[in-house]
Write a structure and sequence with these properties.
Oligomer: homodimer
Number of strands of chain A: 10
Structural class of chain A: alpha/beta
Strand content of chain A: 15-25%
CATH superfamily of the largest domain in chain A: Tetrapyrrole methylase, N-terminal domain
CATH topology of the largest domain in chain A: Cobalt-precorrin-4 Transmethylase, domain 1
Radius of gyration of chain A: 19 Å
Largest sheet of chain A: 5 strands, parallel
Number of helices of chain A: 7
Chain lengths: 231, 231
């Protein structure tokens, strides 16, 4: 039987800000896969995870070069995915650690996309993103009431992009009352990947990849739409 | 000695997706303050917290009415803040629980703002937001590379607002290389509250409320700017 790949968010940096679930996964993993590069931050994920793994856990360092050369990157991502594949084919459970949340600007995303396509069994454990820890530290709300929140990585050009509607991800919290309206607006704005998730990570979790199939009368408060233009 | 108020994010719903730190705070709290309303979701925070508190912990239910009448809301928030104040003045440590992250669309924010103004000792424990758990469940990246991410609550009108630059919060990840440029752009765009946080929740954490005072040559990768138009 093949092993399972876990993408484990270890949180923003404080080893206490990891979830109980992430700890449990780290403790049962056979292999701890850690992205390594010359950039500060990647080693922090490994440092945090090291608190929680059992002594027999093998550590697999995967290089993620800091370059904008797409060809170099793609080749290395393919190579790293093959290293993970080898372990999974041996029946080993592999925990790939990322700082913060695995779905926000992580190298894990590139592994997930390759291995999901090959049919491997994958589970992602969310983590506390650094902007939540930052807001908590600063006692500064990220969003109140109907505020929209835009997350922008490095390049400030993105401010302009966000302002002219080029945000690639839109997250709608509590969309149930406006479901049909949102679906219509997103289609018009060219968002092709519109996913509805209700009760994420809880009993009764449901995911609609085609939100036109959702029965909005039955969908309650605890739901979220994530819309992306690509993929 | 007065007690301390903790804003505790209990995560997206799965009791295992709470942080070790949140558990520790819940276990030592004298009073568990739980927002209660007719809306599903508020009771989930209490349910999750109940797993972790000690039997002697008193539970304080605070009503947060679901109304858009600002006067009614303000009166109730003032009243709830006074209930918390009473406990803190008795020297009790109070954990106010919220589902998800306390800085994202929570009722805690209104308590924090009132009690901080009165000089109470407050600590906020970040949590995993529901959109991270949703993205993990859906195996759907929230942001890759230079993607901007916009979080939009309920009303779809916010899509239009975000697209015309009315996002009230902008989060810049890894701004260090562009620090001065970002500061200039934000000032021009009317963002008055621009805060730089480095190493949030870690040793060496630093917060700059006036980013013109930041020495960008000394600020590394592990930093974030949160910019807001109000406050």
């Amino acid at each position: 039987m093949k092993g399972r790949l876990y993408g484990v968010g270890v949180g923003p940096g404080d080893p206490e800000l990891i979830s109980i679930k992430a700890c449990r996964i780290l403790q049962m993993a056979d292999v701890l896969a850690a992205p390594s590069s010359s950039v500060e931050g990647t080693d922090i994920a490994l440092d945090i995870a090291s608190y929680y793994i059992k002594p027999s856990t093998e550590i697999l360092h995967l290089p993620f070069p800091m370059t904008s050369d797409r060809t170099v990157l793609e080749q290395q991502w393919d190579k790293n995915a093959r290293s993970l594949q080898e372990r999974l084919d041996l029946g080993q459970n592999v925990a790939f650690v990322t700082i913060g949340d695995p779905m926000i600007y992580s190298t894990y995303i590139y592994m997930l996309q390759r291995l999901a396509q090959l049919g491997y069994d994958i589970e992602t454990i969310p983590g506390i993103p650094s902007f939540c820890a930052s807001a908590a530290a600063a006692q500064m709300p990220l969003g109140k009431g109907g505020d929209a929140i835009t997350i922008i990585p490095g390049d400030p050009q993105k401010v302009l992009d966000a302002q002219s509607g080029i945000s690639s991800t839109l997250v709608f919290m509590k969309p149930s009352g406006h479901g049909r309206k949102i679906a219509r607006m997103l289609a018009q704005a060219g968002y092709r990947n519109v996913t509805l998730i209700s009760h994420a990570g809880q009993r009764g979790q449901k995911i609609w990849r085609d939100i036109s199939a959702a029965d909005w009368e039955d969908i309650d408060y605890m739901s979220i739409i994530i819309a992306r233009k690509d993929e």
